[in-house]
Specification:
The protein is an alpha/beta fold. Helix content is 56%, strand content 14%. It contains 7 helices and 5 strands, in the order βααβααβααβαβ. A 5-stranded parallel beta sheet has the order 3-2-1-4-5. The radius of gyration is 15 Å and the shape is globular.
Length: 145
């Protein structure tokens, strides 16, 4: 079975913007691109990533131009945006099962499940909150190129 990755925004943003996890995010995403690994994300991921980039402008961490360039780079990534009713239903169930406060994280988890993907995240709070933690969840901090 071919390898599939579902990348959390906490992995995509450090790929686009220099921050703590940038080296590992770059290595993971470059590995996926160079070896033609399928990369999936929920259909709204563009809005979530864009919102983080805009927040970085408000925080004076990026200029408007830098943020725009990062968003353009994001749009060039070979991402498959997943939108299915089964994703929405499974996200709701995951949020309830793990007592998640929003559907955003649950949607990424559901996307990974439905696509048979490894879910990569840098969100340690999310990982610690998943009990039991699904076997398909991978911490970017543990990534080895």
């Amino acid at each position: 079975m071919p390898r599939v990755l579902c990348l959390d925004s906490s992995v995509i943003v450090p790929y686009l913007v220099p921050e703590d996890n940038s080296q590992k995010a770059e290595a993971l995403i470059q590995e996926a691109i160079l070896t033609s690994i399928r990369i999936v994300v929920p259909c709204f991921a563009w809005a979530e990533v864009g919102s983080v980039l805009l927040k970085k402008v408000r925080q004076k961490l990026l200029t408007s131009e830098e943020s725009q360039a990062c968003f353009e780079d994001f749009q060039m990534l070979p991402l498959e945006f997943i939108d299915r009713s089964s994703l929405r239903n499974r996200a709701w169930a995951i949020a309830a099962e793990h007592h998640l406060p929003t559907l955003y994280d649950a949607a990424f988890l559901a996307c990974a499940e439905l696509c048979g993907a490894e879910f990569w995240t840098a969100d340690q709070v999310l990982i610690k909150g998943l009990s039991p933690c699904p076997t398909y969840v991978c911490s970017l901090l543990q990534y080895r190129a």
